[in-house]
Amino acid sequence: MSAPRTALARLSDPDLRAPRRSPPRPRGGGGGGGFGSLTPEFARVLMLVAARASAITLLIIFILVYATLFAAGGGTGGSSGAIAASWLAVHQVPLVIGKTGIGLWPLLPTLLMLWLVARDSAQAADSDCEINDLGWVAGAAVGGPLLITAVCLAVAEDAAALVPLQPPDTLAAFAWVAWLNLLAAVAGIGSRRWREFADLLPIPLPDWVVPGARAGARAVGRLLAASALVTVVSFLLHWSRIGDTYHAAAGSISGALGLSVLSLAYLPNVVVDGVSVLVGGQVEIGPGSLSLFGIEGAPVPAVPVAAAVPAGPVALWWLALLLVPAAIGVLSGLECGRSSHDRATAPWATLTAAGVAAVAMALLGAVAGGELGTFGRIAPTVLGAVLVFVWLAVAGYVGMLGARRFGGPAAVPAVAYDDYEDDEYEYEDYADDGYDYADDEYDDDDYDDEYDDHDDELDDEDPAADEPHADSGWYDDEDLDGALVAELVDDQDGDEPVAGVKSVDNPDIVDAEVVEGDLPDK
């Protein structure tokens, strides 16, 4: 062990007395306290989560309802009932207008509303929000819409005398509003704090869950994109039917504009139905059905978006569309094979991706379908979600095997620092690899001789260089005022050296020592 060495560290004056920062103060209740324990700042955040998305939704509904009434030349007597019914329709609550029951509502407004709720919830669940306060965020995201729903139910009952609107079932209305907003809030919070949710589980989260869930979410996006592309192609193939629909149903410019807006709002419903058809499932259209294997004719609504529904008969080349979910499944398996530790005997990430995609499509199918008056029920069948799982599991397994064989090495698991023992990195291990320290060109003796020769040359050129650090721009005696001196000192109770920090000519600096062991030899 060489002699103790002294090193000087120059610190600027502001750094000498850095104020000690206190830990961030929690904004919420701090462990599940009552409402009085909430700070005013966090209470304002909860108010925004509860009210902002609902206020934006109501504002858009207000504008659309009054624009429609003015365009139709009618009065504003039933505007309150129309606004209440529109709020319930955005939340997919089944309604009875006159004698017509409607449970198939446009999915686009619902998705936009849920996106607003998820965004506000994600912003509220930032890093300063404690895990115990996330329940307040989810409660606010659900409580605000439920309060507005109660008001709309009361308004709908009072407006039944002016408009042909029957009050919906109260329990069904609250259930639809609660689970949709809760789903959006959980998705928004989970996008920011999923690691903390995983820490709350009674068992550690397996390493294949997160890669599988991400691959499943990407697979859902690819299935929806492929269905949208097929829908656009079907529109182009049936362009004449779209013109006939506008000619028969729209008698004016405002009527054509209304049909266009309505078709755009129902377009996500058609895309979700298209996924069920792509994977080999069926879509119920009243008494009929639509699939790649057969079409049972049934009347469809006279809206332009319904022109994408083929009238039959089934063409043989339609079966080639089954290659789309197969390719998406293989791609999902490749991602799982490259980002997880899946192997032939345990493809857990691949199965997780298939399960996540199947559940997501089942939820979308439940929201996108429903009763539509005399047309009957228009919705994808449960078989579509089951086939999504089958395609992503079977084709994904093939893709996972391909990733293992041709896609390079699997992901290396993170190893704790304690797993690396000191004796694993002895010099003998490197010597076995052909690296000989004896032949190193940077030998200690050669390096010292070269360094001494360089000092002699400097002394010959500049006699002032004999003085240590004189006019060298490093420091002088005055510069030592307020500096910190770090040196290795001997431990009083043992042989191990410690790093000592002491102040030079500065009584405001407190002495501190940090114990360090196993320092390398010179």
Automatic annotation (TrEMBL):
<feature type="transmembrane region" description="Helical">
    <location>
        <begin position="246"/>
        <end position="267"/>
    </location>
</feature>
<keyword id="KW-0812">Transmembrane</keyword>
<protein>
    <submittedName>
        <fullName>Uncharacterized protein</fullName>
    </submittedName>
</protein>
<feature type="transmembrane region" description="Helical">
    <location>
        <begin position="45"/>
        <end position="69"/>
    </location>
</feature>
<feature type="transmembrane region" description="Helical">
    <location>
        <begin position="171"/>
        <end position="190"/>
    </location>
</feature>
<keyword id="KW-1133">Transmembrane helix</keyword>
<feature type="region of interest" description="Disordered">
    <location>
        <begin position="1"/>
        <end position="33"/>
    </location>
</feature>
<keyword id="KW-0472">Membrane</keyword>
<feature type="transmembrane region" description="Helical">
    <location>
        <begin position="378"/>
        <end position="398"/>
    </location>
</feature>
<feature type="transmembrane region" description="Helical">
    <location>
        <begin position="134"/>
        <end position="156"/>
    </location>
</feature>
<feature type="transmembrane region" description="Helical">
    <location>
        <begin position="102"/>
        <end position="122"/>
    </location>
</feature>
<feature type="transmembrane region" description="Helical">
    <location>
        <begin position="315"/>
        <end position="334"/>
    </location>
</feature>
<feature type="transmembrane region" description="Helical">
    <location>
        <begin position="223"/>
        <end position="240"/>
    </location>
</feature>
<dbReference type="InterPro" id="IPR045931">
    <property type="entry name" value="DUF6350"/>
</dbReference>
<dbReference type="Pfam" id="PF19877">
    <property type="entry name" value="DUF6350"/>
</dbReference>
<feature type="compositionally biased region" description="Acidic residues">
    <location>
        <begin position="428"/>
        <end position="465"/>
    </location>
</feature>
<feature type="transmembrane region" description="Helical">
    <location>
        <begin position="346"/>
        <end position="366"/>
    </location>
</feature>
<feature type="compositionally biased region" description="Acidic residues">
    <location>
        <begin position="508"/>
        <end position="522"/>
    </location>
</feature>
<feature type="transmembrane region" description="Helical">
    <location>
        <begin position="274"/>
        <end position="295"/>
    </location>
</feature>
<feature type="region of interest" description="Disordered">
    <location>
        <begin position="428"/>
        <end position="522"/>
    </location>
</feature>
